[in-house]
Write a structure and sequence with these properties.
Length: about 290
């Protein structure tokens, strides 16, 4: 068993920190609000246990580090990344979007092995160190030695780390979900129940078609009916669920709109693809930022 460090133990960070703890690892956390114990429930069980709260003054490189801040908080984590990552560190980036490596690489020392992770884990943070995971906890990572080391961290835990040959398609599939569902949620200030509205259903499919066109231009192999598939999945519920970007907007906090929405516009322009509906949604979200 080894030592694991988690930067940003929010809803996702707590979930996978708890899984690492369950697998027998010593877990240290770098948090704005330090805590000494994790208490995480998941379908079929609970993980409670002690963690070590880190301070920058005594931080050292770890063999495995998880960065689980929101994408727009990455720059704020730079001091922690510099302190906790060293030669050979496997740095797993548990964030939304498709630009994990480009976002993090300038902030870490040379020799750090970055593992981008597509996160599929419904989780709600209750308080520091306390979270409820309400469905399967899964990460998709690309092939590589660092990915294999990271995957082994979770052997015997409730979390699953899949090494997928086509990580780009996995990441873009999640981005379609985030850009479309998150965008609609922010602008309507509602959860999945809003998808029952017939007009919103049409908008969902049209937005998804635009994002998917950009994804394919970038090399992702998304099915032609990706919008319909995602709509069918999300419109079935859970209707009370609100995505993290919606919760941030409702609480007056900055959101990760650039990693979830602006990236679609930027890459669409690169390929000469028209995305008028996403342009509208993105700019309305941007204009409402605190």
């Amino acid at each position: 068993m080894g030592d694991i460090a988690v930067i940003g133990p929010g809803a996702i960070g707590c979930a996978f920190a708890a899984a690492a703890l369950q697998a027998g690892h010593a877990v240290s956390i770098a948090a704005r609000t330090p805590f000494a114990e994790l208490d995480v429930t998941y379908p079929g069980g609970q993980v409670r246990g002690a963690v070590r709260a880190l301070s920058l003054s005594d931080a050292r490189p770890f063999p495995v580090v998880m960065l689980a801040t929101k994408a727009h908080q990455t720059a704020e984590a730079a001091p922690w990344l510099a302190a906790l990552c060293g030669q050979g560190t496997a740095l797993a980036v548990l964030q939304n979007g498709v630009e994990h490596i480009a976002r993090v690489q300038p902030l870490v020392p040379s020799g750090v092995e970055i593992v981008p992770a597509m996160v599929a884990c419904p989780s709600d943070r209750v308080s520091p160190g306390v979270a409820h995971v309400t469905g399967p906890a899964r990460l998709d990572v690309p092939p590589g030695e660092a990915s294999v080391r990271f995957q082994r961290v979770f052997d015997g835990s409730f979390a699953e780390v899949r090494i997928v040959e086509d990580w780009l398609t996995s990441a873009w599939g999640k981005l379609v979900l985030n850009a479309v569902g998150g965008g609609i949620g922010v602008l309507t200030r509602r959860g999945n129940e809003v998808l029952q509205d017939e007009g919103i259903a049409r908008l969902y499919r049209a937005l998804a078609a635009e994002v998917a066109a950009v994804a394919r231009a970038e090399g992702a192999k998304l099915p032609l009916d990706i919008g319909e598939r995602l709509y069918a999945m999300m419109s079935r519920g859970p209707h009370l669920h609100k995505g993290s970007i919606v919760v941030d907007r409702l609480n007056g906090r900055p959101t990760e709109w650039m990693a979830r929405n602006e990236v679609v516009l930027r890459l669409a322009a690169k390929h000469g693809i028209s995305v008028p509906l996403n342009d509208l949604v993105c700019n309305l979200i941007r204009a409402g930022e605190p």
